[in-house]
Amino acid sequence: MGNSDKGEVSIHPNNNDIWVRGFLIEEGIHSSIYMAKMIRRPTHGPRINGYHPVMVVKTTYASENYDLLNEKKILDLFTDCPYIIQCYGDDTTIDFDDDGNKFVFYNVFLEYASGGTLDNFINNSPSYNESKEIKQHIKSILKGVEYIHKKGIVHCDLKPDNILLVKEREDDNFFVAKIADFELAKMANDRTNPTPPRGATFYRAPECWSKHKIQEQCSDIWAVALSRPFNIP
Fold first, then answer.
1. Which of 47, 148, 159, 214 is most buried when burial is the number of CB atoms within 10 A of its CB?
2. What would the mean pLDDT of 166-177 be, rounded to a whole number?
3. pTM of the full predicted structure?
């Protein structure tokens, strides 16, 4: 995306910088995720709520921002849930490549999860099924899913890769599992805007493969049940 993946560079061309983009964390199909940091408190311009020295920014081309706009809209419903990744705001920025070509990006600012994904935690913890952490993570995931469903949302892509571990206390290694990645989420029972099943095929419920291709809140429950933390021997 322009020259933004070459180390840490400013994404504002007007020297009135609010934040800078850091290294690339993950490049996805719909968007890319970078480390980011605020270099001063926002007074105008970027719509960032509060001051967050360290955060991540999810970025896509402004002309292709439908999924990321959808995620921002849905995350704004979850500002008071401690089991869902928090959204700090969004903005649109301009960047130029080495040839002077102009690119317009849409950016969403998100809570930084220093513990990585739940999938990584499981893979790096041979005895994870015996740990107190995994039991606490299971409780957090279930509470998060319950909250999402009470708000009338279907996540559509629940899996260990989309559960992030956020360090809640700087003085110890206590992490909270939080549900992330709502780009594919939708309103439950939305008959006015039907969509085909989406998300990782392994976690899709049987009804997603049926003639009517249904994907509703019960499909999220199926996906959670298939996740490894819920299959502890």
1. 148
2. 83
3. 0.85
